[in-house]
Amino acid sequence: MELNQNQGNRKTLAALQELIEVVAKLRSPDGGCPWDLAQTPETLTPYVIEEAYEVVDAIKNGTEADIAEELGDLLLQVVLQAQIASESSQFSLQEIAQGITQKLIRRHPHVFSDVSVQSVDEVRQNWEQIKATEKGESSSESQKLSTKLSRYGRTLPPLTAAMKISQKAAAVGFEWENIDGVWAKFYEELEEFQQAVAEETPERQQAELGDLLFAVIQLARWHNLDPSEGLQGTNQRFIQRLQKMEAVVNRPLSDYNLDELETLWQQAKAQLAQE
User: Which of 63, 133, 219, 268 is the most exposed place for a label (fewest CB within 10 A)?
Assistant: First the structure.
């Protein structure tokens, strides 16, 4: 068994080395790819996010082959970032791997040291304490609600961050007494958004739109609904209805007037409901 595992590890390392060499060739000024050479860490950021979402979609809806392919695309983004950084002597893929390995060892003293834990909650508490120490935060600073929420705001997609922020705030009592208060807040924000759109600057309109969306997320939380899942479902249904529409027409949708499009839309909606 150990021999087979060692052989598997060697094959894995050989495959990773081949990927590293291919990426280095793509970035080589001598015969490399113009597109890859033009990339920077900043220009690649959208691809990092896109590939991460495609991994999630594959895990939810794809086959094993789909998951493996999307994980490969995400791995490529890590190797690309490391290659670009290494070209200016910032850091290397080796340092990335060593860094995450040491972090895992530090944050799991119950596995790699003599710390004893009795529950998942204890593991989480130890993790947060070690994490705060690593970041140079005092214990009291790391426990502040604003410190925790600022991390969500910086690192998570906006819908996910808003739900997390709302949940954590509610857990310490920053909460309405009942659902009526949440609905009242929603209608208040809706009115303020409508007024901003009619009378105020684009900056103010954007701010009021954010307030309205945050109020919708409070409603979702109170009803135990996931706003990201809800919006994802709406996106998929919209696309599916367009697919049904395009399947029964012989011209581009742009050639149809609004009444014709509405008729096609309702037919597609009814067909999908029956299916």
Answer: 63
